[in-house]
């Protein structure tokens, strides 16, 4: 079971929760990124903290250039707009 907390909104995510949408192929490793399904922010896994941390400004700039990340964010935003 994996339990993480989004550093941006504080939403707890557990792979064991009834409504979890986590497909775990492997345990997270240092530097892996995650998209919070609640707030849409990207965070980075920290092995030292065994949790997620906010992205640095440099990481955020790098992520903004990543086409895959942009597609995830755009999909989240499109879904969030439909819910509102």
Share in helix: 25-40%
Separation of the first and last Cα atoms:
31 Å
Which series of helices and strands comes N to C? Answer: EEEEEHH
Structural class: alpha+beta
Number of domains: 1
Q: How much strand content do the residues show?
A: 15-25%
Number of helices: 2
Q: Report the oligomer.
A: single chain
Mean pLDDT: 82
Number of strands: 5
Instruction: Tell me the strand order in the biggest sheet.
Output: 3-4-5
The major β-sheet equals: 3 strands, antiparallel
How does this model look, in words?
With 84 residues, the protein is an alpha+beta fold. The protein has one domain (3-83). 31% of the residues lie in helices and 21% in strands. The chain has helices spanning 57-65, 67-83, and strands spanning 3-5, 12-14, 33-35, 42-46, 51-54. The strands form two sheets. The protein has a three-stranded antiparallel β-sheet with strand order 3-4-5, with no helix packed on it. Strands 1-2 form a two-stranded antiparallel ribbon. The termini are far apart.
Q: What is the topological layout?
A:
Elements (H helix, E strand, L loop, with lengths): L2 E3 L6 E3 L18 E3 L6 E5 L4 E4 L2 H9 L1 H17 L1
């Amino acid at each position: 079971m994996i339990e993480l907390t989004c550093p941006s909104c504080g939403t707890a995510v557990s792979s064991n929760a009834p409504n979890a949408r986590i497909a775990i192929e492997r345990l997270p490793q240092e530097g892996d990124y995650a998209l919070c399904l609640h707030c849409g922010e990207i965070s980075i896994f920290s092995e030292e903290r065994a949790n997620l941390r906010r992205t640095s400004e440099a990481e955020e700039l790098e992520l903004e250039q990543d086409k895959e990340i942009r597609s995830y964010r755009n999909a989240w935003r499109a879904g969030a707009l439909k819910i509102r």
